[in-house]
Amino acid sequence: MKAGHVHVHAASHGGLYSRPFIESFEETPMLVAVFTYMSYGILTIFGYLRDFLRHWKIERCNIAREKEEQKDFVPLYQDFENFYNRNIYMRIRDSWNRPLCSVPGAKMDLLEQATHDYNWTFHYTGRVMHDVINLGSYNYLGFADNTGPCADSAAEATMKYGVGVASTRQEIGNLDRHEEMEKLVAKFLGVESAMTFGMGFATNSMNIPALSGKGCLILSDELNHASLVLGARLSGSTIRVFKHNNMQSLEKLLREAIVHGQPRTHRPWKKILIVVEGIYSMEGSVVRLPEVIALKKRYRAYLYLDEAHSIGALGPRGRGVVDYFGLDPCDVDVMMGTFTKSFGAAGGYIAGKRELIEYLRSHSHSAVYATSMSPPVMEQIITSMKCIMGEDGTTMGCERVRQLAKNTVYFRKRLREMGFIIYGNEGSPVVPMMLYMPAKIGAFAREMLKRNIGVVGVGFPATPIIESRARFCISAAHTKDVLDTALSVINEVGDLLQLKYSRRKRQPSLARPFDDNVYEDIDD
Amino acid sequence: MFMLLTHSQPCFFSFYTNNINMASGQQWVLVEMVQAFYEAPAYHLILEGILILWIIRLLFSKTYKLHETYRLTEKEKEDLIEEWQPEPLVPPVSKDHPSLSYDVVTGPPSHNIIINGKECINFASFNFLGLLDNERVKQKALASLKKYGVGTCGPRGFYGTFDVHLELESRLANFMKTEEAIIYSYGFATIASAIPAYSKRGDIIFVDEAACFSIQKGLQASRSFIKYFKHNDMEDLERLLKEQELEDHKNPRKARVTRKFIVVEGLYINTADICPLPELLKLKYKYKVRIFLEESMSFGVLGEHGRGVTEHFGVNIDDIDLISANMENAVASIGGFCCGRSFVIDHQRLSGQGYCFSASLPPMLAAAAIEALNIMEEDPDIFTVLREKCKHVYTALQGTPGLKLVGVQFAPALHLQLERSSGSRDSDMQLLRTIVEYVSPTRGVALTLARYLEKEERFLPSPSIRVVVTIEQTDQDIQKAVSCIQEAASAVLK
């Protein structure tokens, strides 16, 4: 996925796209790649040195040890497995797991933590960092709130129903509110029916095995989430991986699969399931849905769309990637999504035709063995969904969707003008900014926190080894002032850490007012 | 070639010994070779000539590919693509499939439950300590909601860790008297993520046959060798361990890197009996296997302070490598936790899939769990009261006509199975369903059939009715329930 050029699909593909599809993944500059490899090399050498010192007790060893009585058991972990953890991850460990003590909204309060032994242990100083700008939480529509209609209805549900359910959907845990919520989700997405589950990760890992089994083929994107990979593995089907968002690769696999059949026996496949995501959170790219649907119809495969990040965040009405491209939701066979990101709750759903949902009601692992969703969480989902749909009588939902789109375009444009390398699609609220070197992940996170902004840095193994990045998640709750503050700080830190790698011509930022026509051609 | 080699051996020997003058040595070897050529018998030369020609032929012939013994034309490929018809995405489900119609509960699923419009006493939810509608728990959850909102909007690594989570983890570790605890946002995902974090391809796991479905999914995700031993049969387990020991002796290098685990439950959800923990510990130290204990049904039930099966047997908790439980039964919240020594638990923070790649537990649910722990710590008598009630129900349900009670005396979730099966699972289920429908809603006692995925379970348990004892049930409630069940059984199973 090292494309160095910008993809613009306006008139090509027979008019499949109703709007320009602009994605860019600028190539890694050669010098930066060389320096990044060198830095990993230096870290590895030092890692071996420290391990040697620790082994010979010259340096104090802070790692937890096995019990004395069990020293002659087979070791629980391979020593090498933990090399990366001990020597590289441990140095910048304070960039992650930062504890909050407030709502994860546009601004948050962080507990200050300090370490005296270079990140082996942390203790809390007792101070709280107030009003840290939050660029890391998945709060796309700003529903993470402790006041307002959503919180009020959740409070009511807590007092009326309690917090737990203590039974499964098929036994005695099916509340009337569950059925209402499912009807609402189906209406929101424009499909026949829907079913909800208590955890987004488990929705994938428990339902893909119910839909596909031995003798079926799963074609999954290179960069699919761990839950999709786990679900595909647990199903027992054959899995083939196509290059990220690459339709030629997918078509080639489809043709080969149908023509040659199952490996060795050449029997025809029972069914073929294409598994893609709406927005890929590490790349910021959006799936080429019109082309995938065209391929699926041509080759009679089934499409499983995971909209964990894109539901609520894309589309003029906030209905996800199907709405973004203006397509028919009935074309997608299985629509899956989570409520954690845009709805400020927890859990996942699967939606589609009535037969599909009836089958899942009787055969899904979650319906039989896992506890149903908690009532206050359900109320939060119902209220926020009604708000987005406009059924609560206000235009707040509509405004939030529009604000998010505005914020996304503005933020991306300004970052690119400053000279950073930004990956992903123009319309995606997930903005990965390339850092490349491992030390810069830690440095960037720490410098931003010093200036009261919380960001997320991601490195190996979530990304390829030299492509470490910082990932910003834009929210509708961010006002223009907040974004401007954040941008000026990022500019400052970018100059300090020399992060402006982009080699495209930098346009000076004109003092232009906000372009309200977000859904027309974006002139860049 | 062979002849040349054998005849040249003395030449080469002398070549090495007389390495002063290389050029003359080389010339000498060449002369020797030509001489040997003339002296060789004819058949030698012919054979070697044939061999040389064969090698040249093989070198220049086309390579033989196994797969492309045939090549399809473009038209044939298009025809195949046109003809291929996949199965429907899901097989059709008949309209009267029993799992399709769910019972609808209106109102809170607590002691007095309104199911399908009729008010009943709840003998079906796992609300052992009656904390589902406890006012204190609700108030704490409400306070937490007013402070944090509902969702956490991120996984633990990316601003999804709240001080409530850290507090709950340290409280759980203190309560269970272990070094560390880790919480998950879904009960099912707890043990299903914990097992694959430690046990990889090539490792060996010994599991009880009656293990619950989430353990089975964890085993499947781990890709290790699974060996099942008969339920609660320590001799069978010892036999398997001995066999493994013999294998290890044959291949000590492999044995040194193969990890071995035993996975058992404290109180089994499928059979309602208890695992023999002291014998398991003896086996652990004898054969050097680690123990993972799943305590969803026994946490908050067994033991003097509710610490589970380790306290019940008086076993040192450090001896168990990992204890996993869900907080959806006695603790009446959502989610699950694992506890144990830091050496073991800390690993899950980077390799537990359900921990790293999933959003964290909503803070109000964590606050509710903390308050439930407070209540459990303040009043350890509730566990004794619960066990008394369990005993009461156990003795009262003995002798039900046509039904046998499966489980131990102090288990809060018992099973009622048919004494004599009719032979087919479907008809058994139908009979039991009739009993359940007889008892509720007309009589006002809510029971439920134990549900399983028939095609997915490895050792499918027999159909049964779940009878759950909670601390909120009074003696009259129990009396009423028992008499209803006995009436239903004699009416339906004549």
TrEMBL record, chain A:
Q: Does the keyword Lipid metabolism apply?
A: yes
From which domain of life does this come?
Eukaryota
Residue ranges occupied by any Aminotransferase class I/classII large domain in the UniProt entry: 131-490
- Answer whether the UniProt record assigns the keyword Acyltransferase to this protein: yes
- Cofactor(s) the protein requires to work: pyridoxal 5'-phosphate
> Where would you say this protein principally sits, based on its record?
endoplasmic reticulum
| Location of this chain's protein in the cell | Endoplasmic reticulum membrane
Keywords of the record, alphabetical order, are: Acyltransferase, Endoplasmic reticulum, Lipid metabolism, Membrane, Pyridoxal phosphate, Sphingolipid metabolism, Transferase, Transmembrane, Transmembrane helix
Q: Name one GO cellular component term.
A: serine palmitoyltransferase complex
Q: Which Pfam families match?
A: Aminotran_1_2
As recorded in UniProt, its EC number(s) are 2.3.1.50
Question: How does the protein associate with the membrane?
Answer: Single-pass membrane protein
Which PROSITE patterns does the record cross-reference, listed alphabetically? AA_TRANSFER_CLASS_2
Q: What class of enzyme is it?
A: transferase
State the Gene Ontology BP annotations: ceramide biosynthetic process; sphingosine biosynthetic process
Which residue ranges traverse the bilayer?
30-49
Q: Which residues form the signal peptide?
A: none
Q: In which pathway does it act?
A: Lipid metabolism; sphingolipid metabolism; Sphingolipid metabolism
A molecular-function term among this protein's GO annotations? serine C-palmitoyltransferase activity
Q: Which family does it belong to?
A: Belongs to the class-II pyridoxal-phosphate-dependent aminotransferase family.
Q: What is the recorded name of this protein?
A: serine C-palmitoyltransferase
The organism encoding this protein is Sander lucioperca
Automatic annotation (TrEMBL), chain B:
| Keyword Lipid metabolism attached | yes
- EC number(s) on record? 2.3.1.50
Q: Would you say which domain of life the source belongs to? A: Eukaryota
Q: Which reaction does it catalyse?
A: dodecanoyl-CoA + L-serine + H(+) = 3-oxotetradecasphinganine + CO2 + CoA; tetradecanoyl-CoA + L-serine + H(+) = 3-oxohexadecasphinganine + CO2 + CoA; L-serine + hexadecanoyl-CoA + H(+) = 3-oxosphinganine + CO2 + CoA; octadecanoyl-CoA + L-serine + H(+) = 3-oxoeicosasphinganine + CO2 + CoA
What Gene3D superfamilies does the record point to? Aspartate Aminotransferase, domain 1, Type I PLP-dependent aspartate aminotransferase-like (Major domain)
GO BP: any one term:
ceramide biosynthetic process
Q: Which residues form the Aminotransferase class I/classII large domain?
A: 119-482
What InterPro entries would the database entry show? Aminotransferase_I/II_large, AON_synthase_class-II, PyrdxlP-dep_Trfase, PyrdxlP-dep_Trfase_major, PyrdxlP-dep_Trfase_small
Q: According to its UniProt record, which cofactors does this protein need? A: pyridoxal 5'-phosphate
Q: Name one GO molecular function term.
A: pyridoxal phosphate binding
Give the first-level EC class, as a single word: transferase
A Pfam family it matches? Aminotran_1_2
What keywords does the record list, in alphabetical order? Acyltransferase, Lipid metabolism, Pyridoxal phosphate, Sphingolipid metabolism, Transferase
Task: Give the pathway listed in the UniProt entry for this protein.
Answer: Lipid metabolism; sphingolipid metabolism; Sphingolipid metabolism
**Cellular component terms per the entry's GO annotation:** endoplasmic reticulum; membrane
Function description = Component of the serine palmitoyltransferase multisubunit enzyme (SPT) that catalyzes the initial and rate-limiting step in sphingolipid biosynthesis by condensing L-serine and activated acyl-CoA (most commonly palmitoyl-CoA) to form long-chain bases. The SPT complex is also composed of SPTLC2 or SPTLC3 and SPTSSA or SPTSSB. Within this complex, the heterodimer with SPTLC2 or SPTLC3 forms the catalytic core. The composition of the serine palmitoyltransferase (SPT) complex determines the substrate preference.
Q: Which family does it belong to?
A: Belongs to the class-II pyridoxal-phosphate-dependent aminotransferase family.
Question: How is this protein named in the record?
Answer: Serine palmitoyltransferase 1
Source species: Sander lucioperca (Pike-perch)
